[in-house]
Amino acid sequence: MKSNTLLEVRNVKKYFPVKDKNLFSSQKHYVQAVNDVSFTINEGETFGLVGESGCGKSTLARLIMGLIKADSGEINFQGKNFLDLHGKELRKSRKQMQMVFQKPYESLNPKMTVGQIISAPFDIHGVYNKKERIQKVKELLEMVGLSQQYINRYPHEFSGGQRQRIGIARAIALHPKLVICDEAVSALDVSIQSQILNLLNDLQKEFKLTYLFISHDLSVVKHVSDKIGVMYLGELVEVGDSETIYNNPKHPYTQALLSAIPIPDPTYKKEQIILEGDLPSPINPPSGCRLSTRCPYAIPVCKEMKPALDPLDTNHSAACHLLSNSKLQKIN
Ligand code: SF4
Asked: Cα torsion for 28, 63, 108, 176, to the nearest 10°?
């Protein structure tokens, strides 16, 4: 692990058991939600994790937060394997990681005032006395662009964007190192999205925050991320600097995602890469490369062998048989 690495996810796997529809069958089935995923996030940077809904992004977020336990692999946070921590040490590390959720209304308790919601992390970790907590909540409200006077109001009295600001205030209350934003702007109007993204950007600069920014929308991820990881059916298929992924994507899945982003210019004709069929079931994913049933470039070996996430360049890796040396030009 490099000295400025804050989070290292290494070979993490999570399968969920599911019941067989046939009552008399003894065969066990699993949803292969996250399969052998590895990446690192350095301090102060934003790592964007992108992929279709159901590709395992949110499961990965819950694994990193310690809300569910991985079957295998390591989640090293500040140099310690999170999966080995217990008691006091685990609580201390948890304090350093917070989450902003997709649906601000559902993630805020409607029976609690804004003051109670934002100060909940203080209660959980036993920090500050009552007077200090009120003062801290007021400061946090100001930081996220809300009036201190809202402290005694309830979530239903706010717009979607304001509720997300409350969720962000709660997430930064304990000065965490890492904030996981799980589809944090997906439920918001486009104009509000940019306000929230600007707020996250400002807070990152002010508090040196590190973000794991999860979204199904590559155009949103591109605007906020230093590095991007692209997930497909529980696996990471391409990782690289934001500019590289956006301007020079190598994996067919990344290329297809990018080609689907509309360009606000009616005269510009963009070649669209169409992936055939629907997302396969994560209970029974295709053998070899998981994209092989939909990939326009698939060759026989794709169904037989899983491609490794191999480096293509400094800070750029992709998992595709066609990218191994001689066949590289096929999808360039
Ligand atoms: Fe497509 Fe084969 Fe590459 Fe998978 S390994 S992305 S199926 S070309």
From this structure: 170
325: left (phi over 0), alpha (psi -120 to 50) or beta: left
Residue whose entry in the numeric block shows the structure tokens 């304001």: 162
Residue 282 CA to ligand 1 center (angstroms) comes to 18
Query: Whose alpha carbon is nearest atom 3 of ligand 1?
Result: 320
> In the chain, at which residue ranges do the beta strands (DSSP E only) sit?
5-18, 29-42, 46-50, 72-77, 80-81, 97-100, 178-182, 210-215, 227-232, 235-241, 310-313, 316-318
**CB distance 295 to ligand 1 below 6 Å:** yes
Closest CA to 4 of 46, 48, 49, 40: 40
Q: What is the pLDDT of residues 62-76, one digit of tens each?
A: 999 988 999 999 999
Q: Six-digit token pair at 215?
A: 């979204």
Residue whose CB lies within 8 A of the most ligand 1 atoms, among 290, 297, 327, 331, for a mutation test: 297
Q: Rounded to 10 degrees, what is the CA torsion of 215, 218, 221, 222?
A: 170
Q: Which two tokens stand for residue 8?
A: 């290292």
In short, whether 231's Cβ falls inside 6 Å of ligand 1 is no
Q: Rounded to whole angstroms, how far apart are CA atoms 253 and 276?
A: 11
> Per-residue confidence at 177, pLDDT binned at 50, 70, 90?
very high
Check if 291 has its Cβ closer than 6 Å to any atom of ligand 1: yes
CA 38 to CA 239: how far, in whole Å? 10
What separation in Å is there between the alpha carbon of 295 and the centre of ligand 1? 6
- pLDDT one-digit tens code per residue, 291-328: 999 999 999 999 999 999 999 998 899 999 999 754 44
Question: Which domains, ranges and CATH numbers included, belong to the chain?
Answer: 5-96+176-318 (3.40.50.300)
The residue whose CB lies within 8 Å of the most ligand 1 atoms, and thus the one to mutate among 257, 274, 322, 329, is 322
Is there an atom of ligand 1 within 6 Å of 318 CB? no
**Residue nearest to ligand 1 atom 7, measured at CA:** 292
